[in-house]
From TrEMBL:
Coiled coil: none annotated. GO terms for molecular function: oxidoreductase activity. This is Glycine/D-amino acid oxidase. Residues 10-358 form the FAD dependent oxidoreductase domain. PANTHER family: FAD-DEPENDENT OXIDOREDUCTASE DOMAIN-CONTAINING PROTEIN 1 (PTHR13847:SF287), SARCOSINE DEHYDROGENASE-RELATED (PTHR13847). InterPro entries: FAD-dep_OxRdtase, FAD/NAD-bd_sf. SUPFAM superfamilies: FAD-linked reductases, C-terminal domain (SSF54373), FAD/NAD(P)-binding domain (SSF51905). Keywords: Oxidoreductase. It comes from the Bacteria. GO terms for cellular component: cytoplasm.
Length: 388
């Protein structure tokens, strides 16, 4: 038997990561009484702290472009508006091209990307080398450059959102795994943890790679499954690289890889495995560094002999089309989905949080309509986007 709620909230959010905490802040700003529940001992302790920090609006999906343009506004003005240094750096994103296949792919996307407000251009080889002189010039055909994209510290940003949420009255309960979502007449009524039961008319599933487990508590099978990606960081070196470099050429073991230089000098890099590595195993592998380092040194010889300090693996909560799932459950009134951000929760989280807040408060704007259609839980899932 479920105990009576010890307190009641307008909204309970499950998960204090890249999506849950910004969502809580947006809702509190809208005047809602919000509780965030997390099984971890503090904020952002699952996938958030394993993010490498890239923030781009350079996508092929219109919803992601719009959402990330808004996120960039939030990140880039955070220090000015909130006072916290989150190590925002606007170095841009660069996609160098060495083969006609990738040239065709990127050029075909340009018109759509520009139509949705993305600041992006095709640069020829000479222009690419002017922006990034250390690129390998051999067979370089050109590439795209998006100067407004950037990076920030996931650790600093998650705590900055957390402290702002506290200032706006959000309550957090850590070390409280959710054991039951209580329904009354088929709709959300409360959430029971290992510690207590809390009442709410709305529950937001922002559980990242564990979204499907939370969905099962209300009888939903949410198509979100964890895919493991590996990353690494080097020793700090003198600054020489501004943009995030993304090489979309597939190779044995990987679909693409990318790297950038942090404000403090370290090179941070990651790879997209191919085929996917499904499951929750986050142990580092012996194959990652040899595979990615050869490709990185080939595209940027200056990286040779920079020492790697550590590697790690994190989980990407993937959907069938590599696009988030955001919206109300039709089967369970009061149950909101903000899941499946596909390893891009850090860059999408702030704007997704605002979107979810507008949905809950019935304050959506006309510009939300297309985005909500694309991220709908009830869309027909197609293939993955080209720049996932």
């Amino acid at each position: 038997m479920t105990a009576n709620p010890i307190s009641h909230y307008d909204v309970i959010i499950i998960g204090s990561g890249s999506t849950g905490t910004p969502t809580a802040l947006s809702m509190a700003k809208a005047g809602l009484k919000v509780l965030v529940l997390d099984r971890c001992p503090s904020v952002g302790q699952e996938s958030n702290k394993k993010a490498i920090g890239g923030i781009r609006a350079t996508h092929s999906d219109p919803a992601k472009i719009r959402l990330c343009l808004r996120s960039i506004e939030i990140f880039s003005t955070w220090k000015e508006t909130c006072g916290d240094d989150i190590e925002w750096y606007q170095g841009g994103y660069m996609y160098p091209v060495y083969r006609e296949a990738e040239e065709k792919t990127l050029k075909e996307l340009l018109a759509k990307q520009k139509a949705y407000g993305l600041n992006i251009d095709w640069l020829d080889a000479r222009q690419m080398l002017e922006v990034t002189p250390d690129l390998n010039p051999d067979h370089l055909l050109g590439g795209t450059f998006s100067p407004k994209d950037g990076s920030a510290s996931p650790l600093l940003a998650s705590h900055a959102f957390y402290h702002q949420a506290l200032l706006h009255g959000v309550e957090f309960r850590f070390n409280e795994p959710v054991e039951e979502i209580v329904l009354n007449g088929g709709r959300v009524a409360a959430v029971r943890t290992n510690h207590a039961t809390y009442g709410a008319d709305v529950v937001v599933n922002a559980a990242g790679a564990w979204a499907n487990e939370i969905g099962k508590l209300v009888g939903l099978d949410i198509p979100v499954h964890p895919d493991c990606h590996e990353a690494a960081i080097t020793e700090p070196v003198a600054h020489f690289l501004d943009p995030m470099i993304v090489d979309i050429r597939p190779a044995p073991g990987s679909a693409n890889y990318y790297f950038y230089q942090h404000l403090t000098g370290q090179i941070i890099f990651c790879i997209t495995p191919s085929p996917n590595i499904w499951g929750y195993d986050t142990r580092e592998t012996s194959s990652y560094l040899p595979m990615v380092s050869r490709r990185m040194v080939e595209i940027m010889p200056r990286l040779k002999n920079i020492r790697v300090r550590r590697t790690w693996r994190g989980l990407y909560p993937m959907t069938p089309d590599a696009t988030p799932i955001v919206g109300w459950s039709k089967e369970v009134p009061g149950f909101m989905l903000a899941v499946g951000l596909c390893g891009q929760g850090f860059m999408l989280g702030p704007s997704v949080g605002e979107l979810v807040s507008r949905l809950v408060t019935n304050q959506t704007v006309p510009e939300d309509a297309e985005t909500l259609e694309i991220v709908s839980p009830y869309r027909k899932f197609g293939g993955p986007e080209k720049l996932q």
